[in-house]
Amino acid sequence: MPAPMFPQNAHRFDPYRTFKFQVVINGKTVAGLSKMGALKRTTEAVKWRSAGDPSSQRVMPGGSSFEAVALEQGLTHDPIFEQWANAVNNVRDGDAGMSLKNYRQDVIINVKNLQGATAISYKLRRAWVSEFQALPEFDANNMNTVGIQSITLQHEGFVRDTEVTEPTES
Predict the structure, then answer these.
(1) pLDDT (tens digit, 9 = 90+) per residue, 78-112?
(2) What is the 3 state secondary structure string of 98-166?
(3) Do the Cβ atoms of 155 and 23 come closer than 8 Å?
(4) Model confidence, pTM
(5) Which domains does the chain have, with CATH numbers?
(6) What is the DSSP string of 4-25?
(7) Calculated CA dihedral for residues 23, 28, 34, 36, nearest 10 degrees
């Protein structure tokens, strides 16, 4: 018999959906968020062989790296992306425009169940904006598109919040 996927909700068989999520930056929920890239860690494989061993190699873990995460937001009056990007490099103020105090932020990612309760939560550690797209490409001939702005975040890893437990579902 397989292990239960959802200990609190044994009746549940389906994994969580990807359209119910929330991103919190500097304590504020991002408005109009439409898409987020995957959290991904890659650990380098180090191959080595000892002189007295058979002619096969051994493999051990090397250094780990974390991929950048992209966030996309529908055009709104929420200035959070632009304010954060300006903390990294504010072209209006030149080199003095970099905020050494505020350019790194911890980011919370909450996965929600269908009832809207937080089911899983991760924290991106010491993230900063490496790319900011203020406006999308405009096309007067296409009335069926939504304006999207985006940021790309570099970060120093992610950790799961183990205090967030599986919510009881009805």
Answers:
(1) 899 999 998 887 766 655 556 677 899 999 999 99
(2) CCCCCCCEEEEEEEECCCCCEEEEEEEEEEEEEEEECCCCCCCCCCCCCCEEEEEEECCCEEECCCCCC
(3) no
(4) 0.82
(5) 21-160 (2.30.110.20)
(6) PS-SS-TT--SPPPSS-EEEEE
(7) -30
